[in-house]
Specification:
The chain contains 10 helices and 5 strands. It is α+β, with helices and mostly antiparallel strands. Strands 4-3-2-1-5 form a 5-stranded antiparallel β-sheet, covered by helices on one side. A hairpin with a 3-residue loop joins strand 2 and strand 3 (228-233). Helix 3 crosses helix 5 and helix 5 (102-125) crosses helix 6 (154-167).
């Protein structure tokens, strides 16, 4: 008797049916997991057009020279006294108009001079005078990078900057790299006492009972000896060892301003106006800034008037 025809089973599919064949030797429970493949189309980044390349270079130069332009502008504002219609001093003008101290302005002005020296000497050394950080010469891009160069001669500034660029691997060096190179050069070439006449320092009285009461006071160097300095404070002169002095690293303009303040305080002190006045003058003798506040200036003027009367 013939067997009845068998029913055909419906075809079914599983996730394993959709996966590529797996070598039985490499099969494992983890290899049998569902696998999802996602195709990510490649995104093509268009190259800059010649016009865009020119615009980029132009804008980069502006960013690089921003601190230089600021320093040059501040120098002209100061030298031509273009602040005189609204402010009595350049210091007050900078504080009100730009929100920073005169010292910050002086740093920018000095940096502009250093930048100019670097580009001038750089132009003498290369044929292409298109000097930017992406062309034939690496130049500073902010003031702090070249602040340590302020006290060096123009030729020394260029030499130190080139060494700093090399140490930075051909990139714009940090201020610390520049400072370290300047320090190493000074240690090799200078005499033991590196302080200069007119330099403003802080007196460090620790472990020196002879300086009791002078700790934290600012002082102006009036004589440079081999291993000591004679300095002038608000109430007189004294000789201090080098380890008990710390330079504020003020710019020459700031040192000159501190000299004027010191002269004024000394005149009032020598007039003998009283103990309360002496306490006020002593507080001025410990300032950690190169300017007097508006109130301090008013009080000192009143004292100067009383002294004259």
């Amino acid at each position: 008797m013939d067997n009845p025809p068998r029913k055909r089973k419906k075809a079914t599919s599983t996730s394993s049916d959709l996966q590529p064949a797996v070598n039985p030797q490499n099969s494992s429970p983890q290899n049998n997991q569902d696998v999802v493949t996602i195709d990510v189309p490649a995104v093509e980044v268009p190259e800059l057009t010649p016009e865009e390349q020119s615009d980029r270079l132009h804008l980069e130069r502006k960013v690089e020279r921003a601190f230089f332009e600021a320093g040059k502008a501040l120098a002209e504002l100061r030298d031509r006294r273009l602040y005189r219609s609204t402010h009595r001093t350049f210091e007050e003008y900078c504080r009100d108009r730009f929100g920073h101290s005169r010292q910050q302005s002086n740093y920018l002005i000095a940096a502009a001079g250093v930048y100019e020296n670097l580009t001038t000497i750089g132009c003498q050394n290369v044929a292409n005078q298109d000097l930017t950080t992406i062309c034939c010469q690496i130049l500073p891009t902010n003031e702090r990078q070249i602040r340590p160069l302020n006290k060096l001669e123009p030729q020394q500034q260029q030499e130190v900057w080139q060494k700093a660029v090399q140490k930075a691997g051909g990139k714009v060096p940090t201020g610390k790299i520049v400072k370290d190179i300047v320090q190493s050069i000074m240690e090799r070439t200078q005499v033991p006492n590196s302080y200069q006449l007119g330099e403003v320092c802080q007196i460090l009285a620790k472990d020196n009972p002879e300086l009791r009461g002078k700790g934290g006071c600012w002082a102006i160097v009036t004589q440079v000896n081999d291993f000591t300095c004679t300095v002038r404070t608000w109430d007189g002169e004294l000789t201090v060892g080098l380890k008990h002095l710390k330079s504020y690293e003020y710019l020459p303009e700031d040192c000159q301003q501190m000299q004027e303040v010191c002269d004024r305080i000394s005149r009032v002190y020598s007039s003998g106006l009283g103990e309360s006045v002496q306490s006020f003058l002593e507080s001025l003798g410990k300032l950690k800034r190169v300017y007097l506040t508006g109130l301090e200036e008013k009080v000192l003027r009143v004292l100067e008037t009383e002294m004259k009367d």
